């Protein structure tokens, strides 16, 4: 298993000068990992609160801080913008950056729904700019290895995928973005996107989506179980919740064996291949900065003059959003402004 291809190391990619739009919690990981583990740099950060932007810039040694997003995207030194604002503003902020001629990497979920995702990618294509959802899992070494195992037919034909993602968020107040419908809160766009995107990555887009679950008092989805069925007859069993810290593991079951991905499946972790005949073997990649892989992919594609990554292209991203749209419809969740 150690001989499997796990993809290029991040530092091998050419550099990009990044701007960060929205200095929240997830942006901290981006700001720390990209300059430390890639040839790229973070040269500016923007927030509606100038003091917050300055404090973030000082902490991560970022040269420039802006008290507004328009100033950030207008910075001639910024080549690409990492958008880490709430889901409710992703489309607005991505369009702002694209209209300023910047490539964009937009935190997952890329938008609130498939229609918004189509608008975002159309705007990028019109301008010849790169745009991608920041689904970092797609570019991690263990997922590259998983696809090599599948492509080699080591577990036969895939029959089913099982994946879950649960975080205990019961202590959060109703005004927190995770429970606020105005900010596109709920488990779907923050938590469920991981198992749904994983299932799409392995099986492709489904023909049938079935969802059941529960809602919070604020009207966003709290817990859901989703089943998918593809045209080939393969199925996915997916679960996400804001009420429990689950194992966050995943399994790919085939006619001749299975692949087990330890928790947390969407982050760097151990993969075990269990063939029906023969001994099991495991692989644990040496990864110290998971976000660096997606940033390196953006840099490679931008320098090659390409507008998307084949590992996570616009069509596939929109298909994931469409699956979640249908699941939310069945759960009875409609976000303000949709």
Automatic annotation (TrEMBL):
Signal peptide: none
NAD keyword on record: yes
Domain GFO/IDH/MocA-like oxidoreductase: 145-260
Claim: Signal is one of the keywords in the record: no
Gfo/Idh/MocA-like oxidoreductase N-terminal domain residues: 16-131
Assigned keywords, A-Z: NAD, Oxidoreductase
Coiled coil: none
Pfam families for this protein: GFO_IDH_MocA, GFO_IDH_MocA_C3
Family stated for the protein in its record: Belongs to the Gfo/Idh/MocA family.
The name this protein goes by in its record: Gfo/Idh/MocA family oxidoreductase
Organism, as annotated: Occultella glacieicola
């Amino acid at each position: 298993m150690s001989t499997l291809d796990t993809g290029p190391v991040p530092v091998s990619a050419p550099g990009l000068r990044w701007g960060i739009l929205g200095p929240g919690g997830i942006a901290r990981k981006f700001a720390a990992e990209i300059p430390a583990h890639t040839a790229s740099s973070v040269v500016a950060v923007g927030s509606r609160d100038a003091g917050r932007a300055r404090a973030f810039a000082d902490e991560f040694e970022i040269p420039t801080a802006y008290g507004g997003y328009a100033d950030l995207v207008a910075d001639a030194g910024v080549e690409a913008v990492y958008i880490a604002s709430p889901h409710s503003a992703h489309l607005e902020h991505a369009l702002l950056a694209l209209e300023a001629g910047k490539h964009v990497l937009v935190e997952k979920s890329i938008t609130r729904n498939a229609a918004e995702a189509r608008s975002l990618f159309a705007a990028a294509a019109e301008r010849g700019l790169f745009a991608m959802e920041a689904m970092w899992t797609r570019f991690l070494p263990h997922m590259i290895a998983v696809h090599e195992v599948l492509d080699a037919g080591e577990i036969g034909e895939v029959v089913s995928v099982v994946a879950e993602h649960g975080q205990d968020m019961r202590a959060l107040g109703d005004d927190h973005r995770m429970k606020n419908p105005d900010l596109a809160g709920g488990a779907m766009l923050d938590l469920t996107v991981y198992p749904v995107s994983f299932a799409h990555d392995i099986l492709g887009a489904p023909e049938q989506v079935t969802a059941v679950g529960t809602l919070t008092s604020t009207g966003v989805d709290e817990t859901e179980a989703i089943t998918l069925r593809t045209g080939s007859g393969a199925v996915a069993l997916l679960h996400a919740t804001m009420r429990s810290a689950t194992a966050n593991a995943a399994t790919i079951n085939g006619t001749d064996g299975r692949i087990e991905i330890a928790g947390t499946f969407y982050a760097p972790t151990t993969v075990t291949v269990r063939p029906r005949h023969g001994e099991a073997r495991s692989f644990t990649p040496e990864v110290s900065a998971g976000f660096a892989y997606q940033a390196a992919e953006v840099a490679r594609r931008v320098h090659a003059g390409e507008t998307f990554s084949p590992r996570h292209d616009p069509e596939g991203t929109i298909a994931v959003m469409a699956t979640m749209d249908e699941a939310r419809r069945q759960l009875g969740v409609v976000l303000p402004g949709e």
